[in-house]
Every structure is written in C-alpha cells, then in structure tokens.
Design a protein that fits this description.
7-stranded mixed beta sheet; 499 residues; 18 strands; alpha/beta; binds flavin-adenine dinucleotide
C-alpha cells in the first residue's frame, strides 16, 4: 500500500478512493472481512429499534407464556469483546449460549489498555496472571498527544500495553467451550419477544437459504455493539485502520518509536466538516496499529462512512507517518459514545440487558470501550447472573464521575467549526492539553483513564478558559442551552457527591 499526500478529493477521485479502499481491505483481510465492513456500514441505515439483520422474512417470535421453560439461562447476542462474559456466567452454573452473525471471538480489533485493565483480566478469574502476561505484545515507556500547529504532550501510565486481541478472544472462546457454553457461529439475532419469565429469539443462520430458527432464554444479553437496534447513544466514533508493517522507525513526528504510543494526533485542521485524528500503537516487532477516526453526532453518520474514511486513510497516511506501509490486518468499527447530555441507551424490557458498546457507558471522550468493559467484567457478570433470577434487580455499575464532564467536550468536537474557523479545534485541543500537562502526570493520566476527580476537572476547565476565553463562544455555538444546563448540573452533582 502506498499512500499519496493530497487533500480533499473531487467526486471522481472519491469513487476511485472507495474502489481502492475496498480492494485493499479485501486484499489484506479477505472477502469475509470486507463484507463485515460493508454490513457495519449498511447498518447505519437501520432506524433505531430495527435490527440491521431483519432482512429475511420469517415468523416473528411469540412472547413465551408465564412459566414457560427456556432453552438457556442466558443468551449473549454478539460474540465480540462481550464473549468474555460467557465463561464467567457458565462458571456461575448458568446455561449459556453465545451467537454472532460472524464467527464468535474473531475480533477485527486491536486493543490497547493500561495496567488496571490488565489486572482486571486476571482478577475476574477468567485468566491466570501468566496467561494475561503472554497476551501483552508490547509495553511503552510513555504515550503522547500532539496537535497540528501546536505542541506535543507526553503522558505516562495510559494505554501503555498492546494486547493480542485475537489471542485474548480465542482463549475466552476455548474457556467458554470447555465450560459447556453453546457457541452459534454465523447466527444473527433478528428479533425477540419478551414474556414474563423468558424471551423468545428469532435467529437467522448465515448460510444461504437457511430458515429463521427459534431459541429462548431467561435473559437476553444484547452485545451487538453499534449494530444493536438499542445502541441509541448520541455520539459515534467511526474508526478505521489496522496493523501496518513498513512504517519508518526513529525519532521525529513522522516516525514510529516502538516504546511510545501515540494516543491522539492531528495532521491538519477541520476538513470535510470533521476534525480527523490519528493514533499509532506499536505492537509486535515491526508492526504498528494505526487508526484514523473522528467524533460525530450519531445522526450525522450515514451508510458508507467507514469505507469513505478508509479512502482518506490510504490517501493521507503518508501525511502522518513515513515509510513503505503495508496493511496486514484491517480493523475498523463504529464506537458509540454517550455524552450524558441526552437519554442513555435503554434495554427494551426487563429480561434484556445491554452491555458493551450497545450500552455505551465507557468514556465519551476516549471511547476506550475495551478498557471500561474489562475493568467492569466481574461486576457485569455478577449483575447478569443476578438478573436471571431477578430481572428487576438494578445494575450495580456506577458511572465514572468524570463522564459527567467529558461528554460535552466530545459533543463539542463532534461538530467543529469549518471555513475561516477550521483551525479553532486544534487551537482548543492544544490549550486544553497544555493545561493538562501543566497540571502534572497524575491529573493528565487520570483524565485519560476515566479516573479524574470532579474538582480537578472543574479546575482543568477553568484554566483552559482562562488561557483561551474564546471557548465560551465555542461552547455556546456548538451546544444547545439545554445541553449546557445538563452539563453544569451533572458537574455540580458529581462535585457534591465527591465532597
Ligand atoms: C477499530 C477499533 C479499535 C479499538 N481500540 C480500542 C482500544 O485500543 N482500547 C479500548 O479500550 N477500546 C478500543 N475499542 C473499543 C472496543 O473495541 C469496544 O468498546 C468493544 O469491542 C465493545 O465490545 P462489544 O462486545 O460491545 O462489541 P463488539 O466487540 O463490537 O462485538 C459486537 C459483536 O456483535 C456481532 N453482531 C452484530 N450484529 C449482530 C446480530 N444481529 N446478531 C448477532 N451478532 C451480531 C458482531 O459481529 C460483533 O462480533 C476499539 C474499537 C474499534 C472499532
């Protein structure tokens, strides 16, 4: 893959971009991965409450009668990261099935995480510490955030481990199988109907001509990620890229250092209405995971967004990093984000629980869903086990206090000003990160790890506004008054709780 250095292309060039992007994803990942990308892209068309997989006609499931027996205690629909829940539930003595429209545990992801997440993987009881250690393929001395036209801000103790995502999910799959979990590869959940004691599921097999079949569970766990019809979070982060070889190593902004993770970096101002961001995480020797992404309001991102972002990725990669880059493993997805300024995604019934990206309880600023879900893994499994017996039991998960503050910042980034003001986003980010850096590594790292205390967050806002008073106009211009009110109220609530 060779990347050029141009800016925004015209319509014909854009079509070429898309064809070339399609060909490159197919070449590196195969036909099945390309169709996974196209399915995700097409799913943006589905209206909320309608599953993207409801394409084939079939009988709608009938809600089970009171007292009806169920095939399983728990069915987990979606075998991505949430597959990790299956062996924990089975170990608690529950009858568990996992189904996925593709192969279960075949991640099209690469994950970076910090020490807390590494520890949580073994604390959950799922893996021994030595097994987790073997899944860490790289560690960094530091990470950095760098803004176009601004500075570079190093930070320690954040996203400083690269995890072998495929190895992690393969190990979880093996553990689930050993504990008797039923694994239904290439089975999509298309619909469900809830009764008082069980949920009936309509499931479509991927093979051509296969009929829709029925299953039932006492609890349905919706782990379909962004493709869930209940994934109604107001923000989304389209992300594309993957594992590359051939990037130039060494010092300098356009080279990779194997002991440094690039957490956030921009290479230009707002273009095509978006502030694009890059990240680069070295993995196994000679390999680096590079992503291009942007923050958007969920309603602003339509079908085809990932493929078109891949077009930009291939065209502009050389603006970010030098070298003879070759894509060896494409990874991509829409990561939902909930700003906390609007209603949270909600399950449609008492016997349905949303987990992972469908629930979007991770940070709306970093979108680190892997980290957030792994930290909560044992607690989530315990909540689900309780919900099988008592579907009305409230979840014990507590939202990290800092999310009450960061969602508004993400909402601000989701509709950046263009035209003559296209440089404002970088200027704001540069000021904000200069302030964080000056507040010290503990505070800076705490924000990126979802651990910042509300009082520190308010200090961070005040100091950013003192250095860049235009931020008041930018906030008022980007957010409706009601959202600003909710933001303020959320912050006051968390400040009060923290006292
Ligand atoms: C490219 C990329 C890189 C990322 N990197 C990081 C990182 O470095 N660190 C971090 O903390 N987080 C990262 N994340 C976020 C993290 O991957 C997600 O938060 C996490 O995977 C969410 O887990 P999940 O189980 O909810 O959904 P997913 O892991 O997305 O799994 C959803 C599954 O549902 C299946 N599915 C969809 N529709 C149906 C259906 N109808 N029936 C059955 N199955 C269905 C899909 O095939 C898929 O396997 C990244 C995300 C992306 C997209």
């Amino acid at each position: 893959m060779r990347a050029g250095g141009g800016g925004a292309p015209g319509a014909a060039a854009r079509e070429l971009d898309l064809d070339a992007a399609r060909a490159r994803v197919r070449e590196a990942g195969g036909e099945a991965l390309l169709s996974r990308l196209e399915h995700l892209d097409a799913a943006r068309r589905a209206a909320p409450g309608r599953a993207a997989d409801r394409a084939r006609p079939g009988p709608a499931p009938r809600a089970p009668d009171r007292g009806a027996a169920a095939d399983y205690d728990v069915v987990i629909a979606g075998g991505g990261l949430s597959l990790l829940l299956a062996p924990l539930l089975a170990a608690a003595g529950l009858r568990v099935a996992v189904l996925d429209r593709a192969r279960i545990g075949a991640a099209h992801r690469e994950w970076n995480a910090g020490t807390a997440e590494i520890a949580a993987l073994s604390a959950s009881g799922l893996f021994a510490p030595a097994e987790v250690e073997r899944l860490v393929v790289a560690r960094y001395a530091e990470g950095l955030c760098r803004w176009h036209g601004g500075g570079t801000y190093p930070v320690r103790g954040v996203l400083d481990h690269a995890i072998d995502a495929a190895g992690l999910l393969a190990a979880a799959r093996a553990r689930a199988e050993a504990l008797g979990v039923t694994l239904l590869d290439e089975h999509a959940l298309v619909e469900h109907a809830e009764g008082p004691d069980a949920v009936a599921l309509a499931v479509a097999e991927a093979r051509a001509g296969a009929a829709i079949r029925g299953l039932s569970a006492r609890l349905l766990v919706d782990a379909r990620g962004a493709a869930s019809p209940y994934a109604t979070a107001d923000l989304v982060c389209p992300t594309v890229g993957g594992v590359l070889t051939g990037l130039a190593e060494g010092d300098g902004e356009r080279r990779i250092r194997p002991d440094v993770g690039e957490i956030l970096a921009t290479t230009e101002d707002v273009e095509e209405g978006r502030q694009h961001l890059w990240e680069a995480f070295p993995g196994r020797p000679g390999e680096t995971t590079v992503y291009l992404f942007y923050y958007a309001r969920a309603g602003d991102v339509g079908p085809g967004a990932l493929l078109s972002l891949y077009g930009r990725f291939f065209r502009l990669l050389s603006r970010y990093k030098e070298g003879d880059a070759r894509l060896v493993r494409p990874t991509f997805g829409f990561i939902p984000g909930w700003s906390r300024l609007s209603a949270a995604p909600r399950a449609p019934g008492r016997r349905v629980r949303l987990v992972g990206d469908a629930a979007a309880r991770h940070s709306p600023l970093t979108f680190c869903g892997f980290g957030a879900n792994v930290r909560e893994l044992a607690a989530t499994a315990a909540d689900l086990a309780r919900a099988v017996e008592d579907p009305g039991a409230p979840s014990t998960a507590r939202d990290a206090p800092v999310h009450a503050g960061t969602g508004a910042l993400a909402a601000l980034m989701a509709r950046p000003a263009g035209g003559a003001r296209a440089g404002e986003m970088n200027a704001l980010l540069d000021t904000a990160f200069a302030v964080l850096h000056a507040m010290g590594n503990d505070v800076y790292a705490a924000l990126l790890r979802d651990e910042m205390q509300p009082a520190d967050f308010v200090r961070f806002l005040r100091e950013t506004a003192a250095r860049r008073p235009e931020v008041y106009r930018e906030v008022v211009g980007a957010l409706p008054l009601r959202a600003i009110g909710r933001w303020g109220a959320g912050l006051v609530r968390e400040l009060y709780r923290a006292r």
